[in-house]
Amino acid sequence: MEVKTLTVSEISHYIKRLLTSDPILCNIHVEGELSNFKLHSSGHLYFTLKDAYSKITCIMFKSNTSQLTITPKDGMKVVIKGYISLYERDGQYQLYVQEMKSAGLGNLHIAFQQLKDSLQKEGIFDAKHKKPIPFIPQKIGIITSPTGAAIRDILSVIKRRFPKVELCIFPVLVQGEQAAASIVKAIELCNTYEDIEVIILGRGGGSIEELWAFNEEVVARGIFHSKIPIVSAVGHETDFTIADFVADVRAQTPSAAAELVVPRLKDIEETLNTFQKRLSFLMNTKLIQEKQRLDAMKNSYSFKYPLNPVYDQKQYIDQLYKNLSKVMHQKIFLYKENLRNTVERLNSLNPLSVFSRGYAVVTDPHGKIIKSVAEVKEDYLMKIRLLDGSITTKVIEVEKEDKPLEKTKL
C-alpha cells in the first residue's frame, strides 16, 4: 500500500486535532511555577509554567484574565486550569489557560482531577447511565440546605412556573466534614418515596473548599445508584463538581435546575389551547371535506345508476358470446372442408377405387403381383382381383406388345 505524503501544515493540523480531542488534555489542572511572565499590549498573558524537571509554554487570552483573583508574577506557584493544543505556525504545543489560582488550592484541584479521571475510566459519567427527566413531575424531591439562598431560589422559581407540583424538602449539610454523609443519606431516603419522580441536588456558590462535599466519591456513588433521576445544581455557572458529571442533568444554578424540572404552566396552557384550536380546525376541515365527498358520491353517475355497470357487463358478455359462436362456426366449417379434402385425397390413393374404374390386379397363386407378360407362360395359373371378388384363371396364350405402356409424368 502506498504511503500518503503529508505537508507540514497537514501534520501540524492532525497533531492539533489529536491533542484537542484527548479527554484528559482538553480539561486539565496543572501546578507549577511561573517564569518569563509577560503582559502583552493586547491584554493576553504569555509565560512559562515549570517544575524541577520540565516546563511548558502557556498563554492566557484577555477574555479569561478578567476572572483572575491574583496578580501573576515570576516565581509564583499557581494551579492552572486549561487545555493542551498546538500552535500550528511554530509547531509547538502549549497550555491554553482558562483559570489561574494560587497553589494553596492545588491539592484540592489535584484530588478533584484524580477522582474525576478514576470515575470517568470506570464509566460512571457515561451517557448510557443518564435517566430522563419527566416532563411534568407530580412530586419533586429537593436536597439542599434549608437556610441557604438555593432553597429560596428553587421554591420561588417552581411556585412561579408550576405551583401545582408537590415538593418534598430533605434538609442536609452542604459543607463541612459531615456534609457528604448527610447528602448520601438524603439521596437514599429520597429513593424510598415511590412517588418522587425527580430530585434537585444543590447549593449556592462558594469556593472550592466550600463546594468540596459535592466532590466526594461517596456522594458521586450515591448519585450514580439513585433510581430517581437527579439534577445537579451546585454553585454558579462556572463551578463544576464531580456531582455535576455523575448527575443525570447538570444545571448551571439552582434556579436553572428549577426551570429544568418543571415547565411553565402558562406555556402548557398556551400550547394546549393552540393544539385545541388546531384540532378543532382540522376536524372541521375534515368534516367539510367528507361532506363534499359524500355529496359528490350522491350526485355521481354510479350512485344514480348503480345497475348500469351490470347492464354494460351483460351486454359485453352477449357480444363475447356472439363473437365466440361466429368463430366456432367458422372453425367447424374449416375443419369440415379440411376433412372432406383429406377424404378425397385418401380415396384417390385407395387401391380399391381403381377397381371401380374397371381395373384389376393380377397375382400369382402366392399373391405376388404380376406386372409383365414375361412373368407368365401358357397354362400358368393366375388370380385376378376385381371390385367385388377374385377369379382364378389359366393362361391360354401370351402376347407381348412391341411398345410397352409408359408411366405418365405428373
UniProtKB/TrEMBL annotation:
Residues 124-333 form the Exonuclease VII large subunit C-terminal domain. GO terms for cellular component: cytoplasm; exodeoxyribonuclease VII complex. It is found in: Cytoplasm. It catalyses: Exonucleolytic cleavage in either 5'- to 3'- or 3'- to 5'-direction to yield nucleoside 5'-phosphates. Its main location: cytoplasm. Residues 6-100 form the OB-fold nucleic acid binding domain. Its EC number is 3.1.11.6. One of its GO terms (biological process) is DNA catabolic process. InterPro entries: Exonuc_VII_L (IPR003753), Exonuc_VII_lsu_C (IPR020579), OB-fold_nuc-bd_dom (IPR025824). One of its GO terms (molecular function) is exodeoxyribonuclease VII activity. The keyword Nuclease applies. The keyword Transport does not apply. It holds the Pfam family tRNA_anti_2. Keywords: Cytoplasm, Exonuclease, Hydrolase, Nuclease. Belongs to the XseA family. Bidirectionally degrades single-stranded DNA into large acid-insoluble oligonucleotides, which are then degraded further into small acid-soluble oligonucleotides. NCBIfam families: xseA. Heterooligomer composed of large and small subunits. This is Exodeoxyribonuclease 7 large subunit. It comes from Clostridium formicaceticum.
